[in-house]
Amino acid sequence: MAHDEPVISLDLPTPELSPETRAYFDKCQEKLGLIPNVLVAYAFDEKKLRAFTDMYNDLMLGASDLSKLEREMIAVVVSSANRCHYCLVAHGAAVRELSGDPKLGETLVANWRYAALDERQHAMCAYVWKLTLTPSEITEADNRPLHDAGFTDRAIWDIASVAAFFNMTNRVASATKMRPNDEYYGMAR
User: Are 127 and 159 contacting, i.e. CB atoms less than 8 angstroms apart?
Assistant: First the structure.
């Protein structure tokens, strides 16, 4: 972390990291050039850290009919609805990088409806926006635009799962005032 501010606003214990966690953090540093602050925040409890990373890696990097860009777009749209500073900065950077389009990343952060999206992306973003803001109002009719745009039932499951994960992490990040790594701000600009 480039600044002296705490990663989160809570004063949680700083445990001795296991060799496995140190190796995971070293791998992050090597591949990403940083250790995401969300991982540092979760490191107070390695069981919670492992649950978080296992779920994240499965949803965001595992086998899916959704591209990595689509999954990052979901993260940004959900985080925009929730106004999660950490995830908007971190996943906005990922959208910029994966798409090669800084304008797309910034527009999704501000208001996905203004982004230049194809039918598939628009249907996906509209669905996760509604799922985030009014989940009890989701009906079978909400799946129709997704099917029309070419999403399978399995892909819809993945869309909902990624959205649900980021709704959870947005709440933790917001509650703890989690700070994004400074490096994210300048990525893929």
Answer: yes
pLDDT > 70? residue 121 = yes
Task: Quote the distance between the C-alpha of residue 72 and its chain's center.
Answer: 6
Q: 19-61 and 68-175 share one CATH topology?
A: no
Confidence of residue 11 (pLDDT cuts 50, 70, 90): confident
pLDDT at 6: 80
Q: Report domain extents, the chain.
A: 19-61, 68-175
Token pair 């990343």 in the structure block, residue: 105
Task: Estimate to the nearest angstrom the gap between the alpha carbon of 119 and the chain centroid.
Answer: 22
The answer as to CATH 1.20.5.810 being correct for domain 19-61 is: yes
The mean of the pLDDT values for the chain is 95
pLDDT at 110 over 70: yes
Backbone angles phi, psi at 175, to 5 degrees: -65, -30
Fold of 68-175: AhpD-like (1.20.1290)
Structural contact between residues 61 and 71, judged by C-beta atoms closer than 8 angstroms: no
Among left, alpha and beta (phi > 0; psi -120 to 50; other), residue 100 is left
The 8-class DSSP code of residue 44 comes to: T
Structure pTM?
Answer: 0.93
